[in-house]
Each structure stands twice: as C-alpha cells, then as structure tokens.
Specification:
With 122 residues, the chain is mostly helical. It has one domain. Helix content is 66%, strand content 0%.
Length: 122
C-alpha cells in the first residue's frame, strides 16, 4: 500500500517525499537483513533499528527529481521483474531448505563465501 502511495506521490510531485523515502529505504534494508539471516548468509538476527553494522547491508541514495512519464511507465516495466523475482525467490527457498538439511546432517556450514571474503578485504 505504501508503495502505491509513493508511486502516486512521485507521479504528481516529481519527487518522493523524504519521510516516505526513508520508510521504504528502512523497510528494504530490514528485508535484506532478514533474508540474509533466513538464508543462512548472516548469523545474528537483525535488529529492527536497521543499523548499518549488519554483515549484509544496502546503500540507498536519497530521493531525486524524476520525470512524470518515467514514473508512470515504471510500473509497467516493473511487472516482469516482479514475476521473475518471485520465481527466483521460490528457487532460493528450495535451495536453502536443502542446505539446511545438509547443515543438519553434517553438523557444519560454510562460514563465508568467496564473495564475502573479497568484500571484507576491501
């Protein structure tokens, strides 16, 4: 519902209001933290304050001016991406389900991946 309100606000004002942007950014950040925890990619359970000290984080830039035509057609362009994202989400959940059984029977899981090790070195 908030996303629809944000779309209309951006459509009419050519910019997303700051409070609405901060709310959506906080929601997205917490969703990434929680998904990282559920998929066994991060260990501590994420706090609701959305702190940037979590092992997996997202950097979201501030609101910028947008063209009305681009905002209007963006919802049509987002539909295929949303469908593909939903399908990929189910595939990841299936993979995590099997990975959980591997961890259960072997008694261990990989602590870091190559990508995570590279990111911590930088």
């Amino acid at each position: 519902m908030v996303l629809v309100i944000a779309w209309f606000a951006a459509l009419f004002t050519k910019r997303l209001p700051g409070g609405l942007h901060n709310f959506l950014a906080g929601y997205l950040r917490y969703q990434v933290h929680l998904f990282g925890y559920v998929t066994l990619a991060a260990d501590p359970y994420p706090a609701l304050n959305g702190s940037s000290e979590y092992p997996i984080d997202v950097v979201i830039p501030g609101p910028e001016d947008q063209g009305r035509l681009g905002v209007f057609f963006r919802i049509l362009l987002a539909l295929p991406a949303l469908v593909l994202s939903g399908v990929m989400n189910y595939l990841v959940e299936i993979a995590v389900f099997f990975a959980w059984f591997v961890c259960l029977f072997t008694g261990k899981s990989r602590r870091t991946t190559r990508c995570a090790r590279r990111a911590t070195r930088a």
